[in-house]
Design brief:
By secondary structure, the protein is of the alpha+beta class. It folds into 4 domains: 31 residues; 131 residues, Roll (Nuclear Transport Factor 2, Chain: A); 149 residues, 2-Layer Sandwich (Ribosomal Protein L30, Chain: A), CATH 3.30.1390; 315 residues, 3-Layer(aba) Sandwich (Beta-lactamase), CATH 3.40.710. It is built from 24 helices and 27 strands. Helix 17 packs across helix 20 and helix 19 packs across helix 21.
Length: 714
């Protein structure tokens, strides 16, 4: 029994010894493994290991990680936040990308005097001013490791030696070798690297918006007589009030030169006449000035440029503008801004603490803006403007067989050159308060087309077979309404009662509202609306200059019979731009195809581009064109004043009434006339003049448009 107990105790003791041995051996193995790893692993302070990690962080623009590897001395000179801000700020300003740093390691890393190693590096990066490469010699210094030591670390140190690490000695030259300790980097657009703004010219290479050398014509108030002021205004083509406005500026002194207007240097005769007046002088202007030779005649077409505002600069923050740049403010200068402006050159330089430039590191040449040539004919543009001068309105001229736009005119206008000279508040307010709205670009706006729309109603009626061109309608009197009483008290009115039954030809000649109202009712609102959309209503017209959409109604539908009837002769809620109307009328000489209007000569081709194809048939176009010829040839025609011996013309007048209620005697009337030559078609002019009621409505417009036609169809 005793032996059995004794044996059990021995077994338990043996098991405990074995377990203890296993645990001891396990700890010995773990500790040995740790020591072995520490002994065999590369030192954390290995110079190549340190520099590789520093370079890797540099490539990634990881400035916080880079800071970890700096020497103690470097860290005393710049703290972590400043280090990050400095590196990040410079690299952000220069748009640094694709950074590649390569170290040229020596064969061995034996520390030189003072435990330092110098390792050459090569740096390449892309910047906003181009690619840049440089070399630099990095200094690494050996420092003792200062950290809490584990008990086994002492064993490793006994075997391996005291642990040290290599650190990077940093200074600004590592970013750019040209940087001194107090320097900073600046990125700017030097004047000699400014891009030239692209120019706008017409189809014959005549200037519309160009960069020209000018002289400033101005006055010295104390020497200027009243008579000289009046003569100067006449020579410059401005008013005495405009000169007085310049002289009223707060900075003006009696003995100082006050600039009045910039004049092209090549206008030597004009300049000579101006400076011959007492008190009038000229001063040279450095560089070139944006100039608009057609002045008011093309103001809304070309628009103008001006110094970029803070808001515009903020909006354009990422596309290379600076505070001194000019930018398109209106017209084609604004529409084509991206193409015209070009890309200014840029420079990266060092500067001292006061911002004085020291060393230019990189320069990138500017890229001039694109020159743009339009299909516009300056002579046609000027001619139309001259005819409309003094009136408020809009006009368009096109080549009806090609879709080329020859003129886009809005009156009254402003002189964009005068804006560039520095328009005073008084001058601006004078224009702004003008009821004819010279700032408003009217050729982009949609208006009620009145009877010019009748051509569209006729085309839809013929296409849907709801109109028989030969059938005569016997309409009595100047007013009409359906006999079923569906109009209530509303009635359609016409200007004249021809006193006889009318067919389509007669209805065009006399411009009979009742005939076309009845035609629209016969077509029906659904077909009328559907077919009208085929003419491009409700669409953005495909054109380089943004235009308001034309509309059949405010919501695209016609709900009432009275609205449908009014729409038949171009009233109701129908609105059209002059350009859209012109393109529709040009379809009469293109077999019912509506062409795409063209603004730039680069878009011309031997085969005109069609916007809406086969809107109506060739037979329909011939029928309507013949009838519209009689609108001018027939002595009773509303466009007869445009008749020109030896020139076959077709056209249509329109006098939409702008009324709040029917028969509003105080309502305004606009006058329309669209006309083209029909034999070898070359020119179509659509002209609209606002508030023409007291001038004769469309009868006031017909001779003006006809004068343009006669001038260019000699």
């Amino acid at each position: 029994m005793v032996n059995n107990v004794s044996n059990s105790k021995r077994k338990i003791f043996t098991h405990k010894v074995i377990i203890i041995l296993i645990v001891v051996l396990f700890f010995i193995a773990v500790i040995g493994g740790i020591i072995a790893i520490k002994l065999t692993a590369p030192k954390a302070g290995d110079p190549k290991n340190v520099l590789d990690k520093y370079i890797s962080s540099w490539d990634k623009k990881d400035y916080n990680s880079m800071y970890v590897f700096l020497s103690t001395d470097s860290k005393t000179k710049i703290n972590k936040n400043d280090y990050y801000s400095l590196n990040n700020g410079i690299y952000t300003d220069i748009s640094a990308n694709n950074i590649k740093v390569t170290a040229n390691y020596p064969n061995d890393f034996d520390a030189k005097k003072n435990n330092q190693i110098h390792i050459p590096i090569s740096v390449s990066l892309d910047t906003v001013a181009g690619s840049y490469n440089y070399t630099y010699e990095i200094n690494l210094v050996k420092e003792n490791v200062k950290k809490q030591k584990k008990w086994y670390t002492k064993i490793v140190e006994k075997i391996r030696g005291k642990e040290t690490e290599w650190c990077v000695t940093w200074n600004k030259k590592m970013i750019f070798p040209q940087l001194e300790s107090d320097d900073k980097i600046i990125v700017d657009h030097p004047k000699d690297l400014k891009a030239k703004r692209g120019e706008i010219r017409d189809r014959n290479d005549k200037p519309l918006a160009v960069n020209a050398e000018v002289v400033s014509i101005g006055v010295v108030p104390q020497s200027l007589t009243a008579d000289a002021k009046s003569q100067l205004a006449n020579i410059l083509g401005i008013s005495v009030n405009q000169i007085d406005s310049k002289l009223s500026a707060s900075w003006v002194r009696s003995n100082l030169f006050v600039p009045i207007q910039s004049i092209l240097k090549d206008k030597t005769d004009l300049i000579k006449r101006a400076v011959a007046l007492p008190g009038v002088q000229k001063q040279d202007v450095n560089g070139t000035v944006r100039t608009y030779p057609l002045e008011e005649a093309a103001a809304h077409l070309t628009g103008y440029v001006g110094t970029i505002t803070d808001k515009e600069l903020a909006d354009k923050n990422n596309v290379g503008y600076s505070k001194d740049d000019v930018i398109g403010k209106a017209g084609l200068e604004q529409v084509f801004e991206k193409r015209l402006r070009g890309q200014n050159g840029i420079a990266i330089s060092t500067a001292d603490a006061k911002g004085n430039k020291k060393v230019t590191i990189l320069r990138k040449a500017g890229k001039d803006g694109e020159d743009i040539r339009l299909t516009i004919d300056s002579d046609v543009q000027q001619s139309i403007y001259n005819q409309m001068s003094g009136d408020a309105g809009a006009a368009v001229a096109v080549q009806p067989k090609t879709g080329e736009v020859l003129a886009l005119v809005s009156t009254p206008a402003y002189d964009p050159n005068f804006i560039n000279n520095g328009m005073s508040n008084a001058e601006y307010n004078e224009l702004n308060s003008d009821p004819k709205k010279p700032w408003t670009n009217k050729f982009t706006s949609a208006y009620s087309p009145g009877s010019t729309f009748k051509m569209i109603t006729a085309a839809i009626g013929l296409k849907t077979s709801k109109l028989d061109p030969a059938k005569e309608e016997d309409i009595k009197g100047k007013t009409w309404q359906p006999s079923d009483g569906s109009f209530g008290s509303y009635a359609i009115t016409r200007v004249d009662d021809p006193g006889k039954p009318e067919n389509l030809l007669d209805a065009f000649v006399y411009s009979d509202n009742i005939y076309f109202a009845k035609t629209a009712l016969a077509i029906g609102k659904d077909d009328f609306t559907k077919e009208a959309k085929n003419f491009g209503f409700g669409e953005d017209i495909p054109f380089g200059y943004p235009m308001q959409k034309s509309q059949i109604s405010n919501d695209g539908t016609i709900s009432k019979a009275t609205q449908l009837a009014d729409s038949g002769y171009g009233q109701g809620q129908i609105l059209m731009t002059p350009l859209h109307l012109s393109m529709i009328y040009s379809s009469l000489v293109n077999d019912g195809n509506i062409l795409t209007p063209i603004l730039e000569t680069k878009d011309r081709s031997s085969t005109p581009k069609i916007w809406h194809e086969n809107v109506y048939s060739s037979d329909i176009s011939k029928t309507i064109l013949q009838d519209l010829t009689q609108v001018i040839e027939n002595p009773a025609g509303t466009g007869h004043a445009a008749q020109t011996p030896g020139v076959a013309l077709a056209g249509k007048t329109g006098t939409p009434q702008i009324q709040q209620v029917q028969n509003d005697v105080n309502g305004k009337e606009n006058g329309w006339f669209t006309v083209m030559n029909t034999e070898n078609p070359k020119l179509e002019v659509t002209m609209m003049i606002e508030d023409a009621k007291d001038k004769g409505g469309s009868a006031y417009v017909v001779p003006k448009a006809a004068n343009v036609m006669r001038q260019f169809l000699k």
